[in-house]
Amino acid sequence: MAMTTSSIIIINLLLLLIISFFTKPITAEPSDFKQKPLLPPPKMEDAPNPGGGWKPVFDPVSFNTIIGYHWDGGFDYLHDDSTRLQTVELWIPVSRANLRYGKPTPSECCFGGSYDGAPYLIYIHGGAWRDPEIDAMSFNKTAVNILSSLAHQPGALSPEQQSKKKLAGIASINYRLSPYPNHPTDPSYSGDIDRSAKHPDHIHDVLTALGFLQKRFGVKEYILAGHSCGATLALQACMDDKRWNIWGGIKDGEGDVLTVTKPKAVVGFNGLYDLAGFIESPPREYKRWQEAYKEFVTGAFGEDEKVWREACPASADPKWVKEWKLSYEEKRRKVVLVQSLEDSLVPVEQTEGMVEYFEKENEKLGEDEKVKVVVLRDAKGGDHDEVWKRGDKMAEILWYVMEGAI
Ligand SMILES: *[C@@H]1O[C@H](CO)[C@@H](O)[C@H](O)[C@H]1NC(C)=O
């Protein structure tokens, strides 16, 4: 592809989506309803260690087919010290579940298997750092869609396909929230430790969860996706820990110090990248949200505008792109920024500002050090939350990123 010096790629999303990649479901016909499942369901009650929380995930298009397993209730990433929201949800594709002992476990994880290099997909939910109604399970629909397309790939369950290293697992992170005392139906109260968080608590939790996934499940390479403030957190995870007052690694609930590997790619959906910029001069059609932004930003980051600037990926100074270091062989870092042009809460200017920041940083970097930036402006992307509520387009875009197509 002919590339300009800026190395920024803009893709017309509508054109892109014409190439539908979801292969025809192999068991979609009603007459096939009684078809044998791709793999026999494991007999959970016979498992040697009963009480495990792996629950089968059934295919939305052929209901008796198991396409993966989801750990019911999430894992506490701080072990006994975890609060209610310090958990991570995990899904594993059926082809990668180790059923040898009658109990599914991720096949490459620390239960004895060796890591084979397949990446994880990890998601950080949005909700303006405070919404009690949005959590890690908001990724469930997208996760199930991805597991489904994985299972329906030709030869999905053959050993050759498994060795293609496409996807080892899917995780979605919960983190403590900031206060929301005037929430209409579920107001926070001051003694709630899960809803009293203040920056940098949120990013601490995210990094702890990433460390937990590395230690417990052998996650090395991963794509980190986030929606709204989850996109902010995903890019904050690429910055130097010292910006978040972390010196000498993250401590987990077992007393170990974890080194957290950075993601090889970040995908931001309808992301917030420059809060101070928005509050200072919101685009005209978004001016009515100025006070609401100020309220949640103050709740999450405090009153000091300098802190807002330093915390946000498009305004942080000194610049941070060089801090995003990959510790494995892969050198190329990638950012995919997806913004719906129908989003009534977050303006496209947030994404534009982020692109500009990368553009300027890239100018200072050598050719192989540049961050590849892909921008998808979706004219028919729906309102702010539609992309995760529906889960189909989000799955499609993430699939493209996993395939390396974008
Ligand atoms: C996840 O989504 C699938 C498909 O929409 C649904 O069948 C399932 O019940 C959901 N799981 C949970 C735990 O909500």
Automatic annotation (TrEMBL):
PANTHER family: AB HYDROLASE SUPERFAMILY PROTEIN C4A8.06C, KYNURENINE FORMAMIDASE
Self-association state and partner proteins as the record states: Homodimer.
Residues annotated as the enzyme's active site: 228, 343, 384
Gene3D superfamilies per the UniProt record, alphabetical: alpha/beta hydrolase
InterPro entries: AB_hydrolase_fold, BD-FAE-like_dom, GDXG_lipolytic_enzyme, KFase_ver/fungi-typ
Recorded catalytic activity of this chain's protein: N-formyl-L-kynurenine + H2O = L-kynurenine + formate + H(+)
Functional summary from the UniProt entry: Catalyzes the hydrolysis of N-formyl-L-kynurenine to L-kynurenine, the second step in the kynurenine pathway of tryptophan degradation. Kynurenine may be further oxidized to nicotinic acid, NAD(H) and NADP(H). Required for elimination of toxic metabolites.
Single GO biological process annotation from the record: 'de novo' NAD+ biosynthetic process from L-tryptophan
This protein's pathway: Amino-acid degradation; L-tryptophan degradation via kynurenine pathway; L-kynurenine from L-tryptophan: step 2/2
Record keywords, A-Z: Hydrolase, Signal, Tryptophan catabolism
Residue interval(s) of motif HGGXW: 125-129
HAMAP family documented for this protein: KFase
GO molecular function: arylformamidase activity
Cleavable signal peptide: 1-28
Domain BD-FAE-like positions: 118-355
Family of the protein in this entry: Belongs to the kynurenine formamidase family.
Name of the protein in question: Kynurenine formamidase
EC number: 3.5.1.9
Entry remark concerning the domains of this protein: The main chain amide nitrogen atoms of the second glycine and its adjacent residue in the HGGXW motif define the oxyanion hole, and stabilize the oxyanion that forms during the nucleophilic attack by the catalytic serine during substrate cleavage.
